[in-house]
Amino acid sequence: MGGWLAATLRLVREVASSVPNVLFVLSVHDEAHLERTRFKPLPLLSALTTAAHWDIPVPGQTWFETSGGVSSQGADQDFGLWESKQWQKQLETKYPWENRTQRAFFRGHDWSASNAFTELLPTRPAEHCIKQHDISMSFGYRRWYAELSHGPLKDVLDVGLTGAPDFVKAQNPQQVYVRPVPLPDHAKHKYLLHLDGTAASNRLLKLLLMGSVVLKQDSIYEEYFYKDLKPWVLAQ
Q: Where is the Glycosyl transferase CAP10 domain (predicted)?
């Protein structure tokens, strides 16, 4: 059983045992589902949503995962431990701020991720030369950042791809892949990049526990806690 599926089932069991005799409709899609232009509003609980969807974001499988993603399944995950004050203190002692590296760090799977629904971002400028139906075309931004980190931005970026689907590897035979890095070891770096995956990446909640500055990609996707995040404000 895959880690994501096992974590989702643990989430369902936890909810069912806490609130009995209530019917929940929980989406296990790794994407928002109920597009506002196609469906009537329904109380569908999902791990993420967008301004274009009716999905209601709820806590996802992050708390229940025991291993990493597709290309880092050997990396242990223990969110309950990571959020404890004792572990946070130990991490700070192991990786003092002054010893952390300066380059923005990222390790992750190359999903050939899509920039779907980015036309709804308030920060996106109008592009009159692009037709409306072409705006959400797929764009491999993780791969793009990896290329930049070995080129013109090598002094400020440390981005490595840990794997990719077979069709992506076939399309990019020259791509070099690197070993996954356990999340606690991300604390060796002062700046951590958070890049979307196939949709929102649930890694953001974990990166915020590493005591580093998180540089988040501007994205249409929202998890349940995004509304409480404030740019440039230190989390307490």
A: 18-236
